[in-house]
Amino acid sequence: MTKPTPKKTASRTRKPSTSAAKKKKAPQKKGWGKKLLLLGVKLSLVGIAALVILGIYLDGKIRDRFDGQIWQLPAVVYGRVLHLAPGDAVDITTVKRELDLLNYNKVRSPKRAGEYSASKTRIELIRRPFDFEDGPEGAQHVMLTFGSEGVTAIKQLDSGKQRGYLRIEPKLLGMMESNTDEQRIFLPRERYPEFLVDALLTTEDRDFYHHDGVSPLAIVRAMIVNIKAGRTVQGGSTLTQQLAKNLFLTRDRTLWRKVQEAYIAIILDYRYSKDRILEAYLNEVYLGQARGQAVHGFPLGARLYFGRPIEELRIDQLAMLVGIVKGPSYYNPWRYPERAQTRRDLILRMMMESGVLTSNQYAQAAARPLDVQKSPSLNSRQPAYFEQLTREIRERVGNQFNPESGLRVFSTLDPLSQSLIEKTVVNKVKALKKTAGNELEAAVVIADRKSGEIRAMVGGSRPGYAGFNRALNGSRQIGSLSKPAVYLAALLQPEKYNLATPLDDKPLVLKGDQGSEWKPRNYDRKFRGQVPLLKALAHSYNIPTVNLGLAIGLDNVISTFDDLGVNPDQITRVPSLLLGAFTLTPMEVTQMFQTLGSGGRKAELTALRAVVTREGQVLYRNWPKASQTVPEQASWLTMYAMKHVVKEGTARYLNPSFAWASLAGKTGTTDNNRDSWYVGIDGREVVTVWLGRDDNKPTKLTGSSGALRVYADYIKERQPQKLILNWPSEVTSVPYQVREGQFVTDCFSQQKLPMWDPKGHWRERCDKPDPVGWLNSLFD
């Protein structure tokens, strides 16, 4: 029997068919495409997320700056405000010079702010609008009328009414030092001339009000122009992009910077109105350099190039400013006037073609010269004055003062006095160096006689250069400037001393504790036996002064210095103090003579009037005030004697030219002619002048031949106000005669001498004269 063949087991696998294998491999190829697509989607999402994150970051950065204070605005410093009122002793020449310093245009008939016309007795002007320390005032169209004594009337021309006063806006002096190297004056959009805005948009961004921050059309147009030219001649950036770059980015020419620039521009356009963006650009645009600092914004640019507010510029001047935007260095009008004028005329022609200007307006504007200032400057520098101003701000405003917050500082500086004394010092010191040597230095302080407000300050022979400020820090022996205080101390005792009191003028020897000897002598080495007190002061005799000071006591003299504003700790209690053998600065000397020159009313010297925030909040305001520290009668008599210093004494050089002004003054000279001093007082100012060398070597100059000559040249240009001293109560006029150089009272004489008569004794004696007894009592 045959065995059956065994069957194959089910575990035996079959070979798969080719079609089945193909079916399994197909999905594998489709998976790579999906992966690439998925990768692209992921990268896109990452990119979008990055852009969103970048946008959020940039948006926060933009809002932080735009919603707060966009710039660190330096504190702007102004000079004093000129107040005019009927009855003020201000002549028409002074007001015209003030307007010229403020760059008012003199025209035949004023039509706009910043213009004036003048005749012999009248000034018509349209005063500029200005934000004063107590609030803003609009433009004022007024007529000022002047007489022989000063202002007689102020009339408001638009209403026909008489005004009680008028304020002339102060001169912009400059900016306080700050931590930023950018300077600008912020101005809101509505105060910009529309022609300036039209010209800027026409030349820089015609579609500004229509694009969303970035203009693709402008980019394409710029590319075509640049390709044709073979170089970059036109940019495609909008004003918004330029603003974005200036405020938030560097100037690196990279693709990444351009991306950020465009992104910021889009966000700015979304977040803020077109006018807000335009306002920021108008205040941000770079327009040049002034003394190493960048000048930004059209308001400051107008002052840099033309010395006047942006609102007052002509269309040709505005066109030049717009032209400079393209390249302040390339179109610098002082270095390359032809380039600047060509660019200006191009902009004027574009404005004519766009219909903003007529052909006649274009022709007139293009025919004008550039009319820029002689040199690029925002102001004349007053480093000595600014040092005093900075000191006072630190003392009186303290931590409230932020030099980058756009504060407005109102000072007391008189721009006319400052400019004239600077010119005088430069010219006169140069001439005096022929005698004194090239190392001769100078310092000057000028203060208002009544208020003590500092009107001008010079710290050295080169007034515009910062350095050692001799006006504030140069402490030098004052010499004969001490004498008025000595005579004042005597006149405070009217029962013992008067202007006719005879003083010994004989050889004098004073012995010290250690056996030393002091032999004071007069400058001319002469002795006169006896001289009246008035003559001794007028001629600055030394020996009579020492005798008088010893008689009334050194303590009384030092106390009088204290009353006049001099720190007594600076005075050594020795007899030589009577001849000024102690040191003071010109500032301290000015304080002393301000008290004396104002009838004994001491007003603390100050350079700071007010500090005001951008919002108008007053952080500090000084109200001029004075206190009676010296009896008016004694001060008045001392000033009477100081008038004789000019009339017949050591300052008589002034009298031929200024006898009408009745000036008072005092010369001062120290040992070996090391220091030359003069203090001059007119109805307006107290002026202290010092000349000397920093090494304290002789200068060969006396007070009369040095400092007095500086004062004379200054006052010739400044033109003094007549010094009128109101006659005090208890001061009476006593008749006298001069016999053999002595003052002798004579009740029947036509000549009279003022004396302090608190108890009426002098008046009574002349009412009932006893010639022998009365005359004897005079010299008792």
Automatic annotation (TrEMBL):
Name of the protein in question: Penicillin-binding protein 1B
- State the similarity comment: In the C-terminal section; belongs to the transpeptidase family.
Q: Which residues form the Penicillin-binding protein transpeptidase domain?
A: 443-681
Q: Which residues form the Bifunctional transglycosylase second domain?
A: 84-167
NCBIfam families, per database record: PBP_1b
Lineage, top ranks: Bacteria, Pseudomonadati, Pseudomonadota, Gammaproteobacteria, Vibrionales
Region of interest (Disordered), residue spans: 1-28
Domain named Glycosyl transferase family: residues? 179-351
Q: Gene3D superfamilies from the xrefs?
A: Biosynthetic peptidoglycan transglycosylase-like, Cytochrome c1, transmembrane anchor, C-terminal, DD-peptidase/beta-lactamase superfamily, Penicillin-binding protein 1b domain
Question: Which reaction equations make up its catalytic activity?
Answer: [GlcNAc-(1->4)-Mur2Ac(oyl-L-Ala-gamma-D-Glu-L-Lys-D-Ala-D-Ala)](n)-di-trans,octa-cis-undecaprenyl diphosphate + beta-D-GlcNAc-(1->4)-Mur2Ac(oyl-L-Ala-gamma-D-Glu-L-Lys-D-Ala-D-Ala)-di-trans,octa-cis-undecaprenyl diphosphate = [GlcNAc-(1->4)-Mur2Ac(oyl-L-Ala-gamma-D-Glu-L-Lys-D-Ala-D-Ala)](n+1)-di-trans,octa-cis-undecaprenyl diphosphate + di-trans,octa-cis-undecaprenyl diphosphate + H(+); Preferential cleavage: (Ac)2-L-Lys-D-Ala-|-D-Ala. Also transpeptidation of peptidyl-alanyl moieties that are N-acyl substituents of D-alanine
Keywords, sorted A to Z? Antibiotic resistance, Carboxypeptidase, Cell membrane, Cell shape, Cell wall biogenesis/degradation, Glycosyltransferase, Hydrolase, Membrane, Multifunctional enzyme, Peptidoglycan synthesis, Protease, Transferase, Transmembrane, Transmembrane helix
Q: Which residues form a coiled coil?
A: none
Ranges that cross the membrane: 36-58
Q: What does this protein do?
A: Cell wall formation. Synthesis of cross-linked peptidoglycan from the lipid intermediates. The enzyme has a penicillin-insensitive transglycosylase N-terminal domain (formation of linear glycan strands) and a penicillin-sensitive transpeptidase C-terminal domain (cross-linking of the peptide subunits).
Pathway given for this chain reads: Cell wall biogenesis; peptidoglycan biosynthesis
Where does this one sit in the cell? Answer: Cell membrane
Organism for this UniProt entry = Enterovibrio gelatinilyticus
